[in-house]
Amino acid sequence: MTATLTLYVDYISQPARALLLLCRAINAPHQEKYIRLLQGDHLKKPFTDLNPFRKVPVVQDGDVLILESCTGLRYIASKYDSSGKWYPKELKARCKVDEYLDWQHLNTRAHGVGYFCNKIIVPILKKSEPDMNVVNKHEHKLGQVETQFASYFLGSKPFITGQNITIADLLAACEFEQPSAGGYQLSQPILEYLSRVKEAVGPDYDELYTHIEQVTTSTD
Ligand SMILES: N[C@@H](CCC(=O)N[C@@H](CS)C(=O)NCC(=O)O)C(=O)O
To answer: How far from 112 is each of 109, 185, 187, CA to CA, in Å?
Structure first.
């Protein structure tokens, strides 16, 4: 059967990796279309016809088109995860997942991307040195994000909702890995959390993560 679910991705995109990890974990039949961000594929047709916001990831499933990664994670888990574990229906657990997905945009995402892009991507694209004032501001904020995440979202639990991994953990892990690949030193509680996510996800975690490492090592 041909997969109707199509993911437009670049492995250097942290929300794209989270979507791919979910599809692989739940065996959702899907195809990948690779959009090379560093080559600017996302700024050209035909991709701009699909996503006028010029960003990856994009999820397409028949006549359903999703331009936001958190919506894509919820959609794919709701439709394709027969176990129901990745986006739990139980209200309290679901609220925790949604709360993290809402919170992360201005916190884990904003400062992880801010650190990584200003330190690694902007210098590659502009062939310039990083603006360390900007990088340092994101580094400082990221420290606060780690503390808030560990104390509020994790507490003493292994994962955000408790004992089970969910889409919120996939996204959190991919977002924390991004600045780490750029040289940011994650705190011990976050490193231990990432090990738990990695163990729960299996080899696909490292397989996708190596692509982001390749970008950073190519700049050394
Ligand atoms: N709100 C969007 C943001 C997606 C996003 O920022 N994607 C980045 C890669 S992680 C991108 O495509 N950046 C290209 C650019 O801004 O030129 C989502 O979560 O899906």
So the answer is: 5, 12, 14
**Which residue's CA is the nearest one to ligand 1's atom 12?**
55
For 99-157, write each residue's pLDDT tens digit.
999 999 999 999 999 999 999 999 999 999 999 999 999 999 999 999 999 999 999 99
Residue in 216, 218, 214, 212 with CA at minimum distance from that of residue 13: 212
Pocket residue to mutate for ligand 1, from 14, 55, 67, most atoms within 8 A of Cβ: 55
First to last CA, the chain: 44
Helix (H, G, I), strand (E, B) or coil at 191: helix
Distance CA 32, CA 16 (A): 10
Segment 113-124, tens digit of pLDDT: 999 999 999 999
d(CA 201, CA 203): 7
Written as six digits, the tokens of 14 are 């942290």
Q: Quote the percentage of the chain above a pLDDT of 90.
A: 93
Q: Would you say residue 213 has pLDDT above 70?
A: yes
42 ligand 1 Cβ < 6 A: yes
d(CA 59, CA 53): 14
Q: Evaluate: CB of 69 within 6 angstroms of ligand 1.
A: yes
What does residue 59 show for φ and ψ, rounded to 5 degrees? -115, 130
Q: What is the pTM of this model?
A: 0.96
